[in-house]
TrEMBL record, chain A:
Gene3D superfamilies: 2.60.120.1440, 3.55.50.30. InterPro entries: FecR, Ferrdict_sens_TM. It holds the Pfam family FecR. It comes from the Bacteria. This is FecR family protein. One of its GO terms (molecular function) is sigma factor antagonist activity.
Automatic annotation (TrEMBL), chain B:
The keyword Cell membrane does not apply. This is RNA polymerase sigma-70 factor, ECF subfamily. It comes from the Bacteria. It holds the Pfam family Sigma70_r4_2. Transmembrane segments: none annotated. The keyword DNA-binding does not apply. Gene3D superfamilies: 1.10.1740.10, Winged helix-like DNA-binding domain superfamily/Winged helix DNA-binding domain (1.10.10.10).
Length: 318, 196
């Protein structure tokens, strides 16, 4: 290894490649000036990009890819290219369900584990811990979410909307979007960070449009969905190592902690109705996090077997 | 019936710029949609970038290509249209590069084609890929906890560099250095793979 690697032209190119690849990059004039400074710089930059992309590709391995030996299936149905595809979808309902006999690819994470699925069209799904979802590799823009929480960063295509379905038949249709979905049995939370999502309940009659900065909460499959504002910055916040809440019931905070930290967190029944507003940092794993968040949540967190239990602070029993 | 996202008026996405300061080209091209209008206004800057970025004397052609994509694309609000156009131009050049590379690779693969059914080859490839993934993870871990963590956040969790820096309470340039170290180590590993 060279003593001062930062002085090599190749490293300068690698730095520019890193900067430009960051979605927040804005210094395009500075980049142009650097490219113009030396005719060799563009080639060095391309080489650095090639190298970084090749390194990235090392991590693009899907475990247990189903072997494609299935007989040719019927031509898949496509939405006609019309702008009002969302409205059209309302009319066709069940056509987009997944039960057409194709082998599905299932992605699953254990509690505490996280995983990113990059789709060919540039869309990404980030799975939080304890999550299971599946998709047909031939039609990856329809995702069936069985359980858990995932952040969808979707490349919008008005002619081929991205659809998330849940086991009870609820459908979420994107309108150009970053959104977070949390499924717990029939309970559903949807938060929209960018773009919009159309929610269609099981009864097919009820549609709710969620714009950026709005979230929908539904306590159970047959419960009415409630729409409320949400800070768009905090949608999918678990991804950044923080959980942020506004008036959330403690049991759902406990579910999130279980999912993100990988240890079971239970709530004493006396606290089941308590609510929490605030931010929890997840940095450092359960051992570090638990003692720190107990005072924030205004609870006692006690070890119980493999996991932790939240109990009331004043209840000093035992 | 659901209302679709409102369309932008021609100057809608330049809302932060006072009306009087609009470039001449924009005023003349009022019929253009937002992005196309910005493209006209920023033409010189984009051309200069494209030329320096490897398009050379084909910069005009690439800009034309960019123009038709922007004009065809469905309208959606864009937060920073200038950055968006530069990004689109960068992607366009990158796509060209990739298709050249894969054409070259296809030709080599054709020459190297070996006997064996497709399925066997796929299975073997997958095993190799998994083994390489494991080695890549080891190499990252050997770079130290923070380098591995930063790479994980950036590449696998898709977090921006500024957000990672905030998260860790370090400077943006140290995040950049960590990523550079990670990529340098992975490049070395890949050279080792190529020799195998």
């Amino acid at each position: 290894m060279t003593a001062r690697p930062d002085d090599l032209p190749a490293d300068e190119a690698a730095r520019w490649a890193l900067r430009v690849r960051d979605p927040a990059f804005a210094d395009w004039d500075g980049f142009t000036a650097w490219l113009e400074a030396d005719l060799a710089n563009n080639a060095a930059y391309e080489a650095a990009l090639d190298e970084q992309e090749a390194a990235d590709a090392l991590f693009d391995v899907t475990p247990a890819q189903p072997v494609a030996t299935a007989p040719e299936r019927a031509p898949r149905w496509r939405l006609p290219a019309i702008a009002a595809s969302v409205a059209l979808l309302a009319g066709v309902g069940g056509w987009l369900t997944l039960d057409h006999g194709a082998e599905l690819q299932t992605y699953e994470t254990k509690p505490g584990e996280r995983r990113t699925v990059a789709l060919a069209d540039g869309s990404r799904i980030v799975l939080n811990g304890g999550t299971r979802l599946s998709l047909d590799p031939d039609r990856p823009r329809v995702v069936a979410m069985a359980n858990g929480e995932a952040l969808f960063q979707v490349r919008h295509d008005a002619t081929d909307p991205f659809v998330v379905t849940t086991a009870d038949g609820t459908r979420l249709v994107d309108v150009g979007t970053i959104f977070n979905v949390e499924v717990n049995g029939g309970a559903l939370d949807v938060g929209v960070s960018e773009g919009a999502v159309v929610y269609r309940g099981v009864d097919q009659a009820r549609e709710v449009r969620l714009d950026a900065g709005e979230m929908l909460t539904r306590a159970a499959t047959d419960a009415s969905p409630v729409k409320r504002p949400v800070d768009r910055e905090t949608v999918g916040g678990w991804q950044t190592g923080y959980l942020q809440y506004t008036d959330a019931p403690l049991p759902s905070v406990a579910t999130d902690l279980t999912r993100s930290l990988g240890v079971p967190v239970a709530v004493d029944s006396a606290l089941a109705d308590r609510r929490f507003s605030g931010t929890l940092s997840l940095e450092g794993g359960a051992e570090t996090v638990m003692p720190q968040i107990a005072p924030v949540l205004d609870v006692q967190l006690r070890r119980a077997g493999d996991g932790w239990t939240m109990t009331s602070r004043d209840a000093r029993h035992r | 019936m659901i209302a679709l996202a409102p369309r932008l008026d021609p100057i809608g996405c330049l809302a932060t710029r006072p009306r009087g300061a609009l470039p001449r080209a924009m005023q003349e091209e009022r019929v253009l949609s937002g992005l196309a209008g910005v493209l006209v206004a920023e033409r010189a800057r984009l051309l200069r970038f494209l030329a320096a970025r490897g398009a050379g004397d084909q910069a005009e052609d690439v800009l034309q290509d960019l123009w038709s994509r922007v004009a065809e694309a469905p309208q959606a609000p864009v937060a920073d249209p200038v950055a968006y156009l530069f990004r689109a131009a960068e992607n366009l050049l990158r796509d060209r590069r990739r298709s050249t590379l894969s054409r070259e690779r296809r030709q080599t693969d054709w020459q190297d084609a070996h006997v064996g059914t497709h399925q066997e080859a796929d299975g073997e490839r997958l095993l190799i890929a998994r083994e390489r993934l494991r080695e890549a993870q080891d190499v990252l871990a050997a770079q130290g906890g923070r380098v591995a963590h930063v790479f994980q956040r950036y590449r696998l969790d898709g977090i921006g560099q500024a957000a990672i820096a905030r998260e860790l309470g370090v400077s943006l340039s140290s995040v950049e250095k960590d990523l550079q170290r990670a990529y340098r180590a992975l490049a070395e590993l890949r050279r080792k793979f190529d020799e195998e």
